[in-house]
């Protein structure tokens, strides 16, 4: 990772495994640069301007677990950036902190100022594609949206994938920021993107609103008690083997669900049975666990659980087995709203299901609770 000492922008992310540069420095657009667009520019015209930068300070830290650069800016709305390289993992993490009080006041004539960080990728000028993870899989807007529909601004559930024609590309996992634009900022744009660049929306500021009795009024905040600083976390990895929705989904979900560490007391009846364990396991990599919770409907005694599974690769999954830490009295397929009408019984030793491509399956479980 190389950072410019004047701007604080990333000038190089070099993939040493594949021998490829990830950052495109040829278009005059910095990587992790903060830009701003007013409402008309962001929504209609797809134009933007650089946000104020100002002086900065860069410090570095290095240790056996990770190395990182800390960029602190004295005046920019992007008050801090932390770039982390975890030891032994092929990924880079970028944490941006945006300071509300350093952003531009947006009166009712401007309507809104939109703030983005830009990420131009070195994936060539033609043949590249962007995929955005939605609730039913990874979609390419130019191919999967309705013909003629505006498809520049996209909502990503947990990640974005950008690839060149030969299959090399990146997966970018997003935590807090879910809205991005591809190629330009124009929300109404239905054309092909000119460059493989992501505009990741961090913040939209509007300060005035039209009231029925007082006319236009300025509001310090739309949400009382909201913070004045906002932190946005991203993680990026690159591969040359083409797009793999299972690998991209695993990477994005893993970053969005960081490891929680807690101490446990020694068991009274001896050591733990093994070095690792899992609450539940699924036999097929293309089947993800969406949730395991207590049933909210048609559950008068509170004893039923709901397990939701989703196929994420566009391939039918037959004979999927789920291992649980408790025995089951029975299990059945329910409707997506947990409706038990026309429920389909399932085998429970082991619990076995089948899913169609991209299907979300709702399974009601009745554990054998202690004392039953």
Description of the structure:
The chain is mainly β and 372 residues long. It has 3 helices and 29 strands. A hairpin with a 6-residue loop joins strand 1 and strand 2 (10-12). The chain is globular and about 65 Å long. The model has no long low-confidence stretch (mean pLDDT 91).
Note the topology.
Elements: E1 2-3, E2 10-12, E3 14-15, E4 20-21, E5 33-38, H1 39-45, E6 49-50, E7 56-62, E8 66-73, E9 78-86, E10 92-99, E11 113-120, E12 129-134, E13 137-139, H2 141-144, E14 153-155, E15 159-163, E16 169-174, E17 179-182, E18 197-205, E19 208-211, E20 215-218, E21 229-239, H3 245-256, E22 281-282, E23 287-294, E24 305-311, E25 317-323, E26 328-334, E27 344-346, E28 351-355, E29 360-367
Antiparallel strand pairs: 1-2, 3-4, 5-6, 5-11, 7-8, 8-9, 9-10, 10-21, 11-18, 12-13, 12-15, 14-17, 15-16, 16-21, 17-18, 19-20, 22-25, 23-24, 24-29, 25-28, 26-27, 26-29
Name a few traits of the molecule.
single chain; 372 residues; mainly beta; nine-stranded antiparallel sheet; six-stranded antiparallel sheet; 3 helices; 6% helix; 43% strand
